[in-house]
Amino acid sequence: MTSLFPLLGDSFPNIHNMHSAPSFVGCLQDIEIDQIMVIPENVSSNSSLNVKEGCIRKDWCEHHPCHNKGRCINLWLSYQCDCYRPYAGPTCAAEYIPGRFGHEESVGYAAFPIEGSDHKNETISMFVRTRKPSGLLLSLKKSTILLFQVWLEGGKLVMSSPSSRKVFGKQTVNDGNFYLISLKMEPNKTELFQSSQNLGYISTPILTIQSGDIIYIGGLPDVQETNVSGGYFKGCIQDLRLSNQPLEFFPITPSLDSVIGKPTFINIAPGCAGDNLCKSNPCWNGGVCYSVWDDFTCTCPPNTAGKACEKVEWCELSPCPHEARCQLVHQGYECLANAVFSGRSSAIFYRSNGKIRRDLTHITFSFRTRDSNVMLLYAEKEPEFISISIQNTKLLLQLQSGNSFYTLSLSSARAVNDGKWHQVTFKMTEPLSQSSRWCIDLDEAKDSTTSAVATGNLNFLRDETDIYLADKAFDHLDGLRGCMSTVDIGGIHLSYFDPADGYTKKPQEEQFLKVSANTVVTGCMELDACLSSPCMHGGKCEDDYAYYHCTCAEGWTGSHCEINIDECASNPCAHGNCSDRTASYVCLCESGYMGARCEEDIDDCLGHLCANGATCLDGINSYSCLCAGNFTGRYCRRIRLPSTVCGNQNRNLTCYNYGNCTELQGHLECLCLPGFTGQR
Ligand SMILES: [Ca+2]
Ligand SMILES: [Ca+2]
């Protein structure tokens, strides 16, 4: 024999038809058979198949034939794709078809019976996508005996077997994304993985999956048994595998020599379409719904919030009159204000809108008054009634309600008519009971008393019962002079604003409506304004609830008595300059005048200097002398008429009016002209 190849040719004429073992692929060099070198030249063409000279290797992966990021493995004659899950097929272009469980509120599950010999050290793995926080994922059963199972609880994975503790996942997986979950069964334990993260293990006896065992996915045939472990799964499961064997819901790969018998599928849909949750119009308040997988989102209008736009920021719509304070209440808002009542005929009354369903077990409000006997709130539906009043300066609740024969009477210990604000709550001590004791809570429990007897709640106010505020309407007493806050009965308010006031209609279903048409004066001051002593200069302050008033001391005026009255304004000084003082004035008199108003002319003749019997004539700050006889001059000290004098230095005589003074024998005598007489 010189060559093996002819022999080969003879022995394997149909080598390409033999499938039992694959042919060698690669290069051979320096082949020596029986010390004879075998080289391509001495191998005849009919004794060889697919043998080529040289050792050229083609890069089959050069053009990236694998899809979906599959890894390409270059072989001599072709390539192989190593696919990422859940892709499959020679080029990873195919994808395992997910099974949709619980589509549109259906319930379903899959059951894969095991066949063939015992399976040890197996891994069960799958992709899971859901938004539900609970649901059974996998259950392995031997006949009716549960071996172990995996389910979702609070959005987290849980694994357990009947004889083991539970293993809990750390993160929630119900966010609508796919998660790869694996169970690795080892001889005496089973480990749970989320992607590559080991979540823990349960100890199991040596676990072999045997022919006849069943892997349940998404639920069990028995509803109650399923509900114990989170109920039926809602979501998608994709690329389920028992080790490397795909367990397909909708096969895309040819079934191999299977370890799985004929599976059962109940209500499993192909693909992973989400439910259309927008179908039920879940968005409130005009929100626009957009479907996302097994969920929805709402595009909310301004002033609304929440997943379904269910929360309305009502107060941001400024729905209240400017003097009111907006407050959010259940399903809506309320406009709160303090009202001023001025006694008789200011009473207002309310009625339920007929839609109040809640139990009314408390009543809360604030008030301020100086009245010592006055009605604050009254309602009656015979024989039931409620009366809240001030009697002998104390706050008093009288209540007869339900089946009780007693009239409950509950009074504050302290006087409440000091004109200051007081907050009061009357409430049932056991609001869930049909009948209970009531307690009063005044000024943040500074005054707290509980009734001795029990009675029912205020539910009679839900029917057609008039609720009077600030007056009883049909008695002879004056109504309240003072203020009341908005009254809160069981969380529903008695608004001072009419629904017809043109503001946004209140959306809440349960309401008390103001029935009386008279408008309420709002704007009661928060505090007694007189506490800050706003009246100056001894003015007296009076608090009128809505405003305050200063009664000024004498000499002062202005709203706060800040102006000194000008008492000189009426020019009170007759002959003088006025100088203003407090509640008075001072006159500085001109010369010659006296008196408070300078009205008095001073008698300047007192101590006058008029001589010779002259008469003093009073003037202004002066006087004149009216001379007698023949005197003249300012003070009448000079003789007024022509005269002659006779005699000597020691003894002389003056004769007036041209009388002739004569001396006869030492006797001096005046000889008068005709018409004059007298000695001189
Ligand atoms: Ca003055
Ligand atoms: Ca005078």
From TrEMBL:
| CDD domains xref list | EGF_CA (cd00054), LamG (cd00110)
- Please give the SMART domains that the UniProt record associates with this protein: EGF, EGF_CA, LamG
Record-level GO BP terms = Notch signaling pathway
Organism domain of life:
Eukaryota
**InterPro entries referenced in this protein's UniProt entry, alphabetically:** ConA-like_dom_sf, EGF, EGF-like_Ca-bd_dom, EGF-like_CS, EGF-type_Asp/Asn_hydroxyl_site, EGF_Ca-bd_CS, Laminin_G
Q: Where is the EGF-like domain?
A: 57-93, 274-310, 526-562, 564-599, 601-637
Q: Fetch the Gene3D superfamilies from UniProt.
A: 2.60.120.200, Laminin
The set of disulfide-linked cysteines is: C83-C92, C300-C309, C552-C561, C568-C578, C589-C598, C627-C636
A GO cellular component annotated for this chain's UniProt record is: extracellular region
Could you list this entry's UniProt keywords, alphabetically sorted: Calcium, Disulfide bond, EGF-like domain, Glycoprotein, Repeat, Secreted, Signal
**Any transmembrane segments, and where?**
none
Just give the chief location class. Answer: secreted
Q: Name one GO molecular function term.
A: Notch binding
SUPFAM superfamilies according to UniProt: Concanavalin A-like lectins/glucanases, EGF/Laminin
Q: Where do the Laminin G domain residues begin and end?
A: 99-272, 337-524
Which cell locations does it reside in?
Secreted
Is-annotated flag, keyword Transferase?
no
PANTHER family the UniProt entry points to:
CYTOCHROME C OXIDASE POLYPEPTIDE VIC-2, NEUROGENIC LOCUS NOTCH HOMOLOG PROTEIN 1-RELATED
Q: What is this protein called?
A: Crumbs cell polarity complex component 1
Taxonomic placement: Eukaryota, Metazoa, Chordata, Craniata, Vertebrata
